[in-house]
Amino acid sequence: MRYLYILFASISFMTSCNSDDLVAQESIPTTEENTYFPPNNSSEWQTKTPESLNWNTSNLNDLESFLEEKNSKSFIILHKGKIVVEYYMNNHNVSTPWYWASAGKTLTTATVGIAQDEGLLNINHKVSDYIGLGWTSAPTEKEDLITCKHLLTMTSGLDDTLGDDYSPSNLQYIADAGSRWAYHNVYVKLQDVVAQASSQSWESYFNTALKNKIGMTGMWNFFGNSNVYWSTTRSMARFGLLMSEKGVWDGNKIISEAFLNEATTTSQPINEAYGYLWWLNGKESYHLPQTQFEFTGELIPNAPTDVYCALGKNEQKIYIYPSRDLVIIRMGQAADEDSFALSTFDSDLWARINAIIN
What we know:
Shape: globular
Largest sheet: 6 strands, antiparallel
Oligomer: single chain
Number of helices: 11
CATH superfamily: DD-peptidase/beta-lactamase superfamily
Structural class: alpha+beta
CATH class: Alpha Beta
Strand content: 15-25%
CATH architecture: 3-Layer(aba) Sandwich
CATH topology: Beta-lactamase
Number of domains: 1
Distance between the termini: 54 Å
C-alpha cells in the first residue's frame, strides 16, 4: 500500500512538473524573423547560410552543375529577403545586365497596378478611353470591347498568329474580347495607357513609381517588336521580393495588396494558370503560348502548388514561393532550345531545388 502511495505521489509530482514546464514554455514569447530589404543605392545585401535553414547542402553542387550545364548566367535564392544562394557563371557577374524577356511583362502589371492605386486609370475601362480609337484594325464595335484587364489577362480577342508587331494593321479581330485566351504582345499597349493616364512617358512613370522606390537598376530597350527590360540579377530579385512582400518595400506600400491578389490568382475562366501576366502553378489545367490546346495537370509538376512565376523566353525566371518566403531567380540563355515561357527546364530545376530545401 505504501508503495502504491509513493508511486501515485511520484506520478502526481511528475505530472505537475510537466504541466508547469508546459505553461512556462507557452509563456516564452516567440519572435518571427523580419524580412530584410537591401538598401537602395547600395551594393550591400545581407546573406544567410543554407545550414541556418536546415537545408540539405550536399545537393548544392548538383544544382550549380545543372545550372551551368544548362547555359545559366545567374541564379539567386532569397529567404525573407536575405541571399541564401547566389551563383554567377558563363561570363556573367553581379553587375552584368541581362534581358528579362517576357518575365518583364510582370513589371507592366505592377506599374498598371500602381497607376490604378493612384486613381490614374481603371483596368475595367476600355483601352480606347485612354489611347483613343483606331489602335487596332478591328471594327470599332469590337475594339471598344477590349478593356485594360483584357490586355492583362491575354484575352483581347486579337489574332495572335500574325507575329509580335503591335501596330494597328497587325492587331486584327478574331474573337470578342474575353472569349479567347491567346498569348499576345498586344499587352505592351498598356504602357501607352499608363503614359497617357499619367501625362508622362512610360519609362519616366515606371522609374518614379516603381524602379527607384525599390532600388532597381536597368532600362527598357526595344528588342525586335518588344519593349524589353534589362537589369542585373539582383534587380530582378528586388522586384521578386516586392511581390513576395505583397507590394510593401521596407515599410512603404508600393502596390496595393488587393491588386496583387487579383494579379496572382486565376484571372479568367479559360486558362486557369494565368493571372495578370503572371503564371500560376497548382491549377488543374493550363494553356501555353502559340496554342489553343488545354493541357491537364499542373504547370510545373515538381514545383509547390502555391508557386507563381514570371516566365521569359530562354528561361528567364522569377519564382515566388509564398509559404516558404522564398524568391528564386534564374537568368541566362536557353537551357536546351529556344522556349517562349515554360519548358522542361522548370520542372528539372525544381527537382533540384526541392532536393535542397526539403
